[in-house]
Amino acid sequence: MKFSKTLINWYSINKRDLPWRKTTNPYYIWLSEIILQQTQVKQGLPYYDAFTAKYPTVFDLANANESAVLKLWQGLGYYSRARNLHATAKHIAFDLGGKFPNTYKDLLKLKGVGDYTASAIASICFNEVTAVVDGNVYRVLSRYFGISTAINSTPGAKEFKQLAQKLIDTKQPAEFNQAIMEFGATQCKPKNPDCDTCPFNSSCIALSKNTISELPVKIKAAKAKKKHFNFLVFISEDEKTIIEQRQGKGIWQNLYQFPLIETEKATNFKSFKSLIKDHELLTNQDFELLLYNKEAVVHKLSHQHLYTHFWIIKVDKLPINGINIENVRDFPVPILIGDFIERFNF
């Protein structure tokens, strides 16, 4: 089909030199795809390099402890990806003898692997004719064919998958999939796409109808919830502090943080000091309270915005066992906490 041939020809000339394009080893392809989920290449590349250097095989990753994996992942966000990455590595290493499933259908059974990732691995590593559909692909197809079906709807997901499957080059599935993703990332960009040099500019419906900025269509997500986080940063006379591991299935699962108090709204110094007097870590304890940041640090997650203050609590002795301040950087923490640690310079 002319579309696929034009696309692959464009790719052969314009593709970026990226390390995962020099291999068909499913471990490296899987690793790159998991890292690049919801992450741009320029941000994900250093993490890919770090992971392949520290864990050159799936067995190395499987034998790592989770805290080490989370620490290396720190800053990428969506930490469930890292936990799934580690769990799947253990499954492949210990249950499958280090061999990745070699079909789209079986790849889908892996934890953390969905339609897109399974299609990418199956086509690139095993030459299976299964089309990838990610944000870049949605954008290219919706604009070129003038499709206004919402991409984050069930009908939209089905329509675009079927269309991509119809267009894929059956003789070069890996090249086609990488080409359409690259085209969306560097040519048919979300903003200011380079339509003047686009090989499809004479047949693109969105360009002809001046609807480039309107496509793809996406149903607006619910408004993000606003939360107020107050972290208690203990500092004792013997230079120790308290950090604790988050439990449960919420955000930052298994990462570490300073003791947290969540309030319904922003609080001032006087109110907060009164509030924490009865905190279990400060009962019958003399302490000096300092507010580190007067303006809240706003940390935006997909479904919630965290308005965060760090409160420095100086005590003679910690009320519970803590860690030496010099070791605080050894623990995997959310980027919000990591940024504070760097700024505060323990």
UniProtKB/TrEMBL annotation:
One of its GO terms (molecular function) is purine-specific mismatch base pair DNA N-glycosylase activity. It catalyses: Hydrolyzes free adenine bases from 7,8-dihydro-8-oxoguanine:adenine mismatched double-stranded DNA, leaving an apurinic site. Keywords: 4Fe-4S, DNA damage, DNA repair, Glycosidase, Hydrolase, Iron, Iron-sulfur, Metal-binding. Binds 1 [4Fe-4S] cluster. It comes from the Bacteria. Its cofactor is [4Fe-4S] cluster. Residues 35-186 form the HhH-GPD domain. Belongs to the Nth/MutY family. This is Adenine DNA glycosylase. It comes from Algibacter miyuki.
